[in-house]
Amino acid sequence: MLANRDVYDEEHHIFRDAVRKFFQAEASPHAADWNNAGQVPREFWNKLGENGLLCPQLPEEYGGVGGDYRLNCVINEEQIYNRAGGAALAVHSDIVAPYLLHYGSDDLKERILPKMATGEMVGAIAMTEPGTGSDLQGMKTTAKMDGNHYVVNGSKTFISNGQNCDFVIVACKTNPKEGAKGVSLVVVEADREGFRRGRNLEKIGQHSSDTSELFFDEVRVPATNLIGGEGAGFMYLMQQLPQERLSIGVIAMAGAQRAFDITLDYVKQREAFGRPILNFQNTRFKMAEMYTELEVGWAFIDQCLHRHVKGELNAVGGAMSKLWTTEMQGRLVDTCVQLHGGYGFMSEYEIAHHFTDSRVQRIYGGTSEIMKELIGRTL
Predict the structure, then answer these.
(1) Is there a single domain that holds both residue 21 and residue 63?
(2) What's this model's pTM, rounded to 2 decimal places?
(3) Coil, strand or helix: which one is 205?
(4) Are 290 and 246 in contact (CB under 8 A)?
């Protein structure tokens, strides 16, 4: 990470040092094994909780430290920069926990949030369906009231933490005739009858991140598992998407920085025609361009962080933070692979993993095209 970023204070720097040491000791050495396994061990989540690396934004009464969102960002940056496994920490801490904290009942908060902070319960959120993609209003999954229970039916796909999760927040239609106003958020625990995990999906990158299909067949959950008001789910999603997209932007910057740093080391050491390839003008120009883009990217993402901490980052700002950083990451990583030459295409070289891991950044959390549409509507 760049030094002297004024978005962070001394507390964050001390925290970063502890986070980095944890990931380097407990996760980075296992990256290859976890990639091969297709997920991180469930017990790793407990270690994260024991070390205070889950849901630091939560108030102390729910097991957090009452910090602001910047603590989450430190964790995200260090996890990505140190290639510290595929546990979708941002999904768990930055996305799932806030829905419960901001909109959940006291019962839901008291029952789930403390266990999220310790790692006893891993959270997931299920929005995307096989036939809808970014069109959340087109979801088919339903939750129909039957007595004092909702009965959930449908399927979801591309769900991060799908294999490890102990509960999932399901975006579903409680009133299918109402479009967006008929969308609600319902908590479904993984031990409910009728809930089934599908296969751990095979992806071109992020191999150690468990990503699953989920199926709901007459799953009965208490009406008290509803998050907030019935029919308010789409509004809640829109309110929380800026933070989700900012998290993706932060992760993009950390991944791009790591790709640049390992490439800089490589071009200093790799020789061609009797001299380091950094000595060739083309290489120096490419590195200079990337270095500049990183400086611009960090300045932009830190500006967004400042705004978000003050409660001033709106939906357009969140979309911009994701759009620019992920597109920049794609350009930068591709250039880094090119500078590695044939070795950039070899899985034994770290840069190859950045190439495949980063591609989905422009897709999940809303595609780049959707981001452009959201931004364009305001012009």
Answers:
(1) yes
(2) 0.94
(3) coil
(4) no
